[in-house]
C-alpha cells in the first residue's frame, strides 16, 4: 500500500509539520505500507491554479498528480486559517480531481491555534474531499499548540488517538485492496 502524506503549512517548524513527522514515522512502521510519499506545501511550491492549461505542466504539479494517481490512500494535514484549510493546501487539492481521489481512503487532521478552532477547517476539508469522491475516514483530529511536548510528540492521550486514526486508514485501505 502506498500513502501520500500532504502537509498544508507553508510555515517552517509548524505544528502541522510535527503531525506529519508523527504520521510518517507511524506509517513507515506498518507492514502493509510499502511507501509513504510526502507533499509538503512549504517545500513543493505550486503555481496558483488559474484555469490555464500551462499550470498543469509545472514540474511540481506533474509530480503531485502522478503520485496522487498511484497511491492507495492519503493523509491530509492542515493548519487552520480563518476557519478553513490553508490556501496552499486548497490550491494543491484544486490541481487534483476524482481521477486521483475516487474511492480512496483519506485521514485528516488540523493543527489549530488554540481555543475552539479546528472543527471548521476539518469540515472544510471534508466538503472538498467529498467533492472529489474521496472516502474520508470517520476519525479526525484537531490539535492545539499546548498538545505538543517539547520533543514534538503529542501528549500521550492525543498521540494514541492520532495513531488510531492512522491505523483506521491502514485497515480500511487494506480491506478495499482486498
Task: Report on the architecture of this protein.
The protein is α/β, with parallel strands linked by helices and 178 residues long. It has 6 helices and 5 strands. Strands 2-1-3-4-5 form a 5-stranded parallel β-sheet, with helices on both faces. Helix 1 links the parallel strand 1 (2-7) and strand 2.
Profile the largest sheet: 5 strands, parallel
- Indicate the proportion of strand residues: 15-25%
Give the topology string: H per helix, E per strand: EHEHEHHEHEH
- Helix percent reads 40-55%
Mean pLDDT: 95
* Number of strand segments: 5
Radius of gyration based on Cα positions: 15 Å
Question: Helical segment tally?
Answer: 6
Structural class: alpha/beta
Based on Cα principal axes, name the global outline.
Answer: globular
Separation, N- and C-terminal Cα atoms: 11 Å
